[in-house]
Specification:
Elements lengths: L8 H15 L5 H9 L4 H19 L5 H12 L3 H17 L6 H6 L2 H10 L3 H10 L3 H17 L1
Helix pairs in contact: 1-3, 2-4, 3-5, 4-5, 7-9, 8-9
Length: 155
């Protein structure tokens, strides 16, 4: 795109949606998400919603309101596969972060995104060790290994 060409309409809507989602209140969040998902450019709309899910889930990760929030989001996204998977993976990351049950299979079957995120933020040593040993990519294994080494050096 040349500097003198106008910004495509979908780019402008994407930025507007991100701003609206960032500023929405808890009371209007789900309605705002619903409006975004009505956009005719479904790829752009879903990208905006995934960005919002990532931001809000990170904020609420260990908060007691996370389960209710996630249940409401699941209703709004209503089976859209990619968004539903991302929400499930945030729920798994919450389980790890709050000491709830998780399985090796859940961790190893999760997406590359999840494994990278878990290697980056999970304080749970068994998860880090699992990812350092059996993470899907070299990047995940290395990141988890570095976190283990850093923890050992800090002790």
């Amino acid at each position: 795109m040349a500097a003198d060409e106008p910004e495509p309409a979908e780019h402008l809507r994407y930025v507007r949606y991100l701003n609206e989602l960032a500023l929405t209140s808890a009371q209007t969040e789900m309605a705002t998400m619903g409006v975004v998902l009505e956009d005719p450019d479904t790829v752009m709309a879903e990208a905006a919603i995934v960005h919002h899910i990532d931001r809000r889930a990170a904020q609420l990760l260990t908060d007691e309101t996370f389960p209710d929030w996630a249940a409401r989001v699941a209703e709004v996204i209503d089976g859209r596969a990619f968004m539903a998977r991302r929400l499930r993976e945030w729920t798994l990351l919450r389980a790890i972060s709050t000491g709830q049950a998780w399985t090796e299979e859940e961790i190893l079957d999760a997406s590359d995104w999840f494994q990278r995120k878990a290697a980056e933020v999970a304080a749970c040593l068994p998860v880090r060790m699992l990812l350092a040993d059996r993470g899907r990519t070299r990047r995940v294994r290395a990141a988890a290994g570095r976190r283990i080494q850093k923890r050992s050096a800090d002790e």
